[in-house]
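Exercise 7.
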Amino acid sequence: MKTFIHKMQSRKWNSFVVAACRLQSLHVFFFTLAVLGTVCVGNAPLRADSVYDVTGTIGLMGNTVAPCAGTCSETINFSFQYGYQYEGNGLYQGYALPGTIQVSAFGDLGSLFATTGTFGNPQLGPNPGCSGGDANNMEFLDPAGDEIDLHACGAQALTPFAPSFSTTSTLYGCATATCTAEFVPPSWGIVGPRTGLFVDGTAQTSVTAIPEGGAFLGYLAISLAPIGLAIRLSKRKPRQCRLG
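Solution. The predicted structure, written as tokens, is:
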């Protein structure tokens, strides 16, 4: 009986050692990483030829009468990558890619403006030379709620296209007394918070296409790296496993 138990324990130990030895190889692990990386490339939500670097500046000049007398202003500098998301029904929606948005501001309304990167009331484009208005607007808001808008010349597309933007920005809403007093024309007779103002400002933008295939090749390089490491390891002398 003891001999039988000893043989069974010996067989279990040998099986364990063989299994452990096989698990020491990293080839399968690295190959799995490569496959997962390739899957990630295939599931990339954006086409590389539909992503663009956008940089620009929005400017507002204050009233020419007191309290500003031509000395008040607000400037918002921004940059983001612009891409498209398929929304169904043959439509693509333009938006600023999360994680790529940078905003800096200075002037009489402060330095804390920010944007979510989405476009309100999107319309079909392209529409080069568009004006402002209440369409295709990316909102820049300060903590108090003052709102200045950048306008795309079409934030929806049947086929993704290089974006363009209006040279006119708009002060859409004032939530503070400073905003109303310094940037809304006194002749409008507005007192207190108000939205739907559409006071014209300026906008300058620069759009640069990200080289086609750039993002894809980056993902591909990451996914193929484990394969190279696995090949390198396979050239080493395999370890010998003792079974006892």
